[in-house]
Amino acid sequence: MQPASDGEFSASQRTALKPYFTNLDGPVFCLLNMPEVVKGALFSRYSRTEKSLRRVLLDEFLDRVVPPSAVGEGVGAESAVASDRAEEFYERILVGYGDDSVAELAGAHLALERVSTLAAKSLEDSRIGLSPLEKSTRYVRFDRPGADGKALYYRGPELNHPGYEPAMGELFATYSGLLEPLTETIRGQHPRRTDESERAWKSATRAKALDLLRGLLPAATQTNLGLFGNGRAFEYLITKMSAHELPECRRLAVDMHRELSLVIPTFVRRSLDAGHGRLAAARMVRVREELAGLAPAPTPVPAEVGVRLVEFDPEAEAKVVAAALFPHSDLPLLDLAWRDVNSDRVLEALLGGRENRRQRPPRALEHATYTFEIVANFAAYRDLQRHRMLTQDRQLLGTELGYDVPDLIRTHGMEVKFRSAIEGAARAQRSLASSAGRELAQYAVPLAFRLRWYVRANLREIYHLCELRTAPQGHVDYRSLAQRIFRCVEEVHPRLTVHADFVDMGPGDELERRASEMRLDQKRAAVGRSSEPRA
After folding, report:
1. Do residues 114 and 148 make contact, with C-beta atoms less than 8 angstroms apart?
2. Residue 255, class by beta-carbon neighbours within 10 Å (0-12 exposed, 13-18 middle, 19+ buried)?
3. What are the backbone dihedrals phi and psi of residue 107, each rounded to the nearest 5 degrees, phi first?
4. Could you tell me where the beta strands, DSSP code E, fall in 159-221?
5. Residue 279 CA, distance from chain mean position
6. pTM of the full predicted structure?
7. What DSSP designation does 131 have?
8. In contact, 32 and 21? CB cutoff 8 Å
9. Which residue of 116, 290, 355, 468 is surrounded by the most CB atoms within 10 Å?
């Protein structure tokens, strides 16, 4: 590695800088022990000076020179960094120059607990600059009561309806009552194998039971959510949530703003202010209300469950081939699209020889786009919504399109209890919709009910989504949707899909998590062996 510069810093300066960088000499290094606002300010200042990044920190953001013994590596080092100076710099850039991109240079980790599943979908709907992670219905049982002894579902004052809490209570009681007998039934059908640990077997069978029962959970079910994002993304998220039709989301906007103001205050300052955030939020509300008034009145429309391809580009193959050749040619893109080239050889060179799905298809595939309309249960939407490199939007969650009962719930003799709880919630939803509106009534809808949404995605994302979501260990609901999406594309563009080697169109595993849990045991054993001292 070549040094960044010879003799740039004195011995005392190196001592002062040491706690803040992974190395002081190489041209590639990471930042340590600094507030997020300082990291971002360093990078943004870096773009406006001839100085090195380490020199910028030393000259402009260190309050004093302190030895490592005083600061400590990783302990108390932030105290030597001038956060207020970083804040002033950002204020100057954001206000004086309007360079919003600098807000992408600092971020924060935000935890939101006991948030309804409905609100979580709104939080996760932001695609760029945010990375969400949500409590899983496959690995965590949701019938554990809260500290107050009550089932964990949202009870806002806006849901003060006589039928709401009894219906939600029945859903959770049914979920809880069926979980253990269903788990034991599954374990009886899938006894532990001789090459399977008890841990792997219990995990796989419990996951199967939780998968089958998740349709009972209402959209009001409280979940935990972690978000990592940059300042610009959080600013927009707070503004957008402040304009939301659900009071819970508007309250979350205030809570998020308060907490993020303690970590990245400069970046979220405008999200709720009168000059920026409030004006933007008011416009969002106005647009939503005007469009709702222009839309046809809601009427029951028959819907075929599944996936329908509603739009594709007949010239996609030529465009993908042209885009693949473009970096290696001196011709304009449109000329390449109509040149006489061997498309099969180009596509083979572009896509052939992938050894696993993590070897991503190239960017040229983004020149083929598709629009799908999907009707499936809300639980499946909850899984697929997390794919961010696509455009999607949904209609209001309701009960008009019916609901799904898993086949194994029927065969295990649990259908009557399952349907009773689901239909009780549907009655509460319809009553709540009449008195409080369809938006609030969404809370009462179990995840088993279907809704309609659309997805617009390019072929590169189709490869990623279908190769990931058709894996045998995937939930049967989203797995079948991913298979149908792939079949739709395959029918119109067979030569563009022939190299999707890791899309699994098979029936899947009856006990989806078994093989994965057994592989997990092998990985743990390997890690344990590798960590043992050598003889």
Report:
1. no
2. middle
3. -140, -175
4. none
5. 28
6. 0.87
7. E
8. yes
9. 116
How are strands ordered across the β-sheet holding 107-116? 107-116, 222-230, 130-134
Per-residue DSSP letter, 297 = P
16: left (phi > 0), else alpha (psi -120 to 50), else beta? alpha
Helix 198-213, helix 514-531: angle, nearest 10: 140
Structure tokens at 260: 């993020």
Between CA 313 and CA 325 the distance in angstroms is: 19
User: pLDDT of the chain along its 535 residues, tens only?
Assistant: 444 445 688 999 999 999 999 999 988 888 888 877 777 777 777 767 778 889 988 888 886 444 444 444 444 444 556 666 666 666 665 555 556 676 677 788 899 999 999 999 999 998 888 999 899 999 999 999 988 899 999 999 999 999 999 999 999 999 999 999 999 999 999 999 999 999 999 999 999 999 999 999 999 999 999 999 998 999 999 999 999 999 999 999 999 999 999 888 888 988 999 889 999 999 999 999 999 999 998 777 777 899 999 999 999 999 999 999 999 999 999 899 878 899 999 999 999 999 999 999 999 999 999 999 999 999 999 999 988 888 999 999 999 999 999 999 999 999 999 999 999 999 999 999 999 999 999 999 999 999 999 999 999 999 999 999 999 999 999 999 999 999 999 999 999 999 999 999 998 888 888 988 998 888 888 876 544 443 3
Among residues 188, 124, 115, 206, the alpha carbon closest in space to that of 152 is found at 115
Instruction: Give me the residues paired with residue 449 across strands.
Output: 403
What is the dihedral angle through the alpha carbons of 138, 144, 146, 150, rounded to the nearest 10 degrees?
120
Structure-derived torsion over alpha carbons of residues 128, 131, 135, 136, reported in degrees to the nearest 10: 80
- CA pair distance 182, 211, nearest whole angstrom: 11
- Looking at the DSSP bridge assignments, the partners of residue 313 are none
Q: How far apart are CA 80 and CA 94, in angstroms?
A: 25
Encoded tokens for 159 = 């849901």
What tokens does 106 get? Answer: 């600092």
Q: How many CB atoms lie within 10 A of CB 114?
A: 12
End-to-end alpha-carbon separation of the chain, Å? 34
Amino acid at 522: Q
DSSP assigned state of 437: -
Tokens 């008009």 correspond to 400
Backbone angles phi, psi at 423, to 5 degrees: -75, -30
Cα dist. 167→206, 217, 218, 220 in Å? 26, 11, 10, 11
Between CA 290 and CA 228 the distance in angstroms is: 33
Instruction: Characterize the bridge pairing of strands 222-230 and 306-312.
Output: unpaired
Residue recorded with tokens 């919709």: 433
- 309, 371 in Cβ contact below 8 A? yes
Q: What is the CA radius of gyration of the chain?
A: 27
Distance CA 408, CA 186 (A): 9
Partners of 456 in the beta sheet? 371, 391
Length of the chain: 535
Strand partners, 374: 307, 453
